[in-house]
Amino acid sequence: MAENSIVRLENVAIYHSNNPFANVSAKKLKNYGQLVLSDVNFSVNAGELVYLIGRVGSGKSSLLKTLYAELKLVEGEGYVAGYNLRKLRNRDIPYLRRKLGIVFQDYQLLTDRNVFMNLHYVMRATGWKRETDIRKRIDEVLQLTGLENKGYKMPFELSGGEQQRLVIARALLNKPELILADEPTGNLDPQTTDGIVELFMNIAASGCAVIMSTHNTAILEQYPSRALLFSNGKVNEIDLAERLRL
pTM to 2 decimals? Predict the structure, then answer.
């Protein structure tokens, strides 16, 4: 794996399974679950922003779930943030996820706590001890995401764009090597979407890799970057400049 490669997948097949962490032999592989993607090969380096594009149900979310180990990798080779996904033990999954930031479309915020306490809870849960360090880091991520004056607000008092910025702030708390964002602008208006994509581009420019799934191809025209197309059970890199000329 290249020195600055955060993600590398080689000859990977991705399956849906009712029991994703069952032990699977080569003989039983064909009965493991539904094949979603096959022959997946790509890498992502530090500081890159990579779009995953394709229709709903084309496998984008399944690939992201494989990268953060919600789905087990049982075929091919996969490495994320220094972890071998084929050899990953259940007890190591939390440590992998501390090196990642995960941004969900549906926010998954704690609705009974304000912005500050949503972040404080995550930091305590992931091993931060010193209150001064916690408060300093919360201030930093709120500044980065433009929420520096919103710490006292409850989630329901925030706009959709502000809630998504809070989710991104939460994803940044542990200074991740990689952000995985699953349709992060799917529920947002165009102007708010622009602000979120610009934020992801700034995060990538700081050295953190970003993988973002989207079905909004207008984003690619305004904010071009590497793009992987999901179609017919395959993943192929596309020449975005050529595609936009068509």
Answer: 0.90
CB 77 within 8 A of CB 9: yes
Residues contacting residue 32 through CB under 8 Å, at least 6 positions apart: 15, 17, 22, 24, 74
Residue 79 phi/psi, 5-degree rounding, is -130, 130
The three-class DSSP label of residue 15 is strand
DSSP string, 23-82: ---TTTGGGSSEEEEEEEEEEEETT-EEEEEE-TTSSHHHHHHHHTTSS---EEEEEETT
| Cα–Cα distance measured from residue 67 to residue 42, given in angstroms and rounded to the nearest whole number | 12
pLDDT tens sequence across 179-207: 999 999 988 888 999 999 999 999 999 99
CA atoms of 163 and 166, how far apart (whole Å):
5
Residue 213's DSSP bridge partners are 52, 182
Tens digits of residue pLDDT in 205-218: 999 999 999 988 88
For residue 90, the Cα-to-chain-centroid distance in whole angstroms is 20
3-class SS at 7? strand
Of 52, 54, 38, 56, the closest CA to residue 7 belongs to: 52
Nearest alpha-carbon partner for 209 in 175, 176, 184, 178: 178
**Can you give the length of the chain in residues?**
246
